[in-house]
């Protein structure tokens, strides 16, 4: 409200006992709501579940999983549990194969979505007086509009610039003096590089980047922060359309490396990706999320495919959220190269640790021969242009040593690889015939 003190959003969360009790109530209500919805998918899925037996979060594991294929099978609107007269928004995520996944919201879902994104922004240090530069794509993708309403909920002035048009983005950043920017990590780096090339980087006041929608390593964080210079902090935001969009979990500047899951709305579990059984405390596994409060399109125990682990209670700044490690990647992104399992983010980590390697790279999984071969093309930094082969040998050695993979590494001059200005960057490419995917 104009003129009144800032109405803070809850960035602390409830202490464990109260939280568990609220989660239990919400879980029971969710199961009852799904069973009563008359939705054929949920009627069938819950046929074997005794509703009255679900009274606390301990009963979660007796509930069935939801998987991406369920949403595909129910395309377009089969998983909507409320009458269409009660729904007001639709988003979609472009799948790698075939049909997009559609998600639908009621006004209450949108209010909760705005709330969790306002929390994420506030946790990062955003304040109502901020002019928020929102470089996530607007449209079917949840990034743009999800964070847009979160920014408005917090009281910020949101600049809905969306992705692309880098020249305009830099002009707006310069003229409006935005302190906080939102985009994918790869695009944040593109903006920094371009600002540097134009000689205007040090005139920009941007200090916080709220970056997500793609996996990115700690090394990439350093690269992004260095590229902006001057005390820029790059923070991680996590979310997925099937659960709500951005705003499921957020990293705080005083607790780097941990994502705070807003667990009053999204109940997290970690399971073995192969068996679905819970992993031992603190072990890596697949993140599973239940939407405790969603109305139009809830999911029970949704298998995100994203790999992480639970972290112990942090107690930083009095916060109580469930903490998970930043995402390692997706189970289905894992590469198997001559019997060695490796996530692209581990390769990124090795590349980013070498000061002579730039921040742009691409991986080709060459499936033409009897053995899968790995090719990596990376830009060298400007300083390293005259020693490309020395740097190449060193980095190839580190890859072999640290992650036991042998890769055909090619170093190219800085600025010679394409940049992604709209949407998510694609780092891993498959090669199955003689068409070079990096050509
Ligand atoms: O990417 C939602 C989003 C928008 C998150 C803006 C953050 C910021 P989808 O397009 O449905 O939704 O893609 C979800 O992207 O399952 C992860 O595999 C990946 N992903 C999202 N955030 C992160 C992150 C949005 N911070 C899928 N780190 C998820 C790693 C991420 N992976």
> What is the CATH first-level class name of the largest domain?
Alpha Beta
Ions, cofactors and other ligands present here are: 5'-O-[hydroxy(phenylacetyl)phosphoryl]adenosine
Rg over CA atoms:
22 Å
Second rung of CATH, namely the architecture of the largest domain: 3-Layer(aba) Sandwich
- What would the CATH topology of the largest domain be? Rossmann fold
| Molecular shape | globular
Helices, by number, come to 10
CATH homology group of the largest domain? ANL, N-terminal domain
Low-confidence stretches at least 5 residues in length (pLDDT < 50)? 1-5
Distance between the termini: 54 Å
Number of separate structural domains: 2
Query: How many strands?
Result: 21
Widest β-sheet, arrangement of strands: 4-3-5-6-7-8-9-14-13
Q: What is this structure, in a nutshell?
A:
By secondary structure, the chain is of the alpha/beta class.
Please, could you describe this protein's structure?
By secondary structure, this protein is α/β, with parallel strands linked by helices. The chain folds into 2 domains: 1-332, Rossmann fold (3-Layer(aba) Sandwich); 335-431, GMP Synthetase, Chain A, domain 3 (2-Layer Sandwich), CATH 3.30.300.30. The chain has helices at residues 16-36, 40-45, 68-73, 107-124, 142-154, 166-176, 185-197, 218-228, 344-353, 388-403, and strands at residues 89-93, 101-105, 131-134, 157-159, 180-183, 208-212, 233-240, 245-250, 258-261, 266-271, 285-291, 302-308, 310-311, 322-325, 329-330, 335-337, 340-342, 357-366, 373-380, 408-412, 428-431. The strands form 5 sheets. The chain has a 9-stranded mixed beta sheet, sandwiched between helices. A 4-stranded antiparallel beta sheet has the order 10-11-12-15. α8 (218-228) crosses α9 (344-353). The radius of gyration is 22 Å and the shape is globular. Residues 93, 136, 142-143, 212-215, 236-241, 245-246, 304, 306, 327, 330 line the site of 5'-O-[hydroxy(phenylacetyl)phosphoryl]adenosine.
